[in-house]
Amino acid sequence: MNKLTFIGNGNMALAIAQGLKEKFKFVVVGRSLESIAKFEERLGVSVEAHLLDEYDITDQSLIFCVKPANLQEVSHKLKGTCNTLYSVLAGTTCKALKESISSQYTIRAMPNLAASKMKSMTILTGDVEKASISKELFGSIGETLWVEKEKELDIGTALSGSGPAYLALVAEALCDGAVKQGLKRADAMTLMRGLFDGFGTIIQDSHPAILKDGVMSPAGTTAAGYGALEDGNVRASFINAIEKAFSVTQKE
Hints:
Blueprint: E1 2-7, H1 11-20, E2 24-30, H2 33-43, E3 48-51, E4 55-56, E5 61-64, H3 71-75, E6 78-79, E7 82-87, H4 94-100, E8 103-110, E9 120-126, H5 131-138, E10 142-146, H6 150-161, H7 163-180, H8 185-202, H9 208-215, H10 221-231, H11 234-249
Parallel strand pairs: 1-2, 1-5, 2-3, 4-6, 5-7, 7-8, 9-10
Antiparallel strand pairs: 8-9
Helix pairs in contact: 6-11, 7-8
């Protein structure tokens, strides 16, 4: 079984590892053995643990999962040249990565937390020589999209990377609305989960506008609710959310 080395052991590293644990053995490099032990416990499989200081990355495939602000601090503690660096750092360019970490190939990847359920939507870019193997690797945790320009990845990050938080807000608000009208919280949650599960299927082969028009009858309940959303500028707010999230990646 092939090995993957995780530099960092936070939530995104755990989500990716959960999706890949049937196919790879893991080396996990972190600041403390205690935190790696907690990672291992949550993951449910054994990992090879190492402390960050002076870790030799020579010829390894790395998944770099630290916070963008910690790039320089962490990279200075690594030695050697890795084979392939897969970075999930938002807003951190390939140029910045190459200047910080010695690697033969560099790939930027932006999965989301659905990786733990092998349902991630992962955007990829970088050294095209590794495009195929990158799509195969991250295809183990869901769908992938290779883009040619880093700007496209940053825009996509604002959509699919941050998207779970936006949809969580929608899910919570819909449940709150149902509870406000008198539905039990547990029943509202059940209906919401069924809604998201079914919608995730039908949106795969239909345009959102067509789905909306198919549900909205003249002067009906959906039309009334949809009108309320338009009154609240929900559409504009989501468009602005993508713009704001993208603008942050350009500053990092």
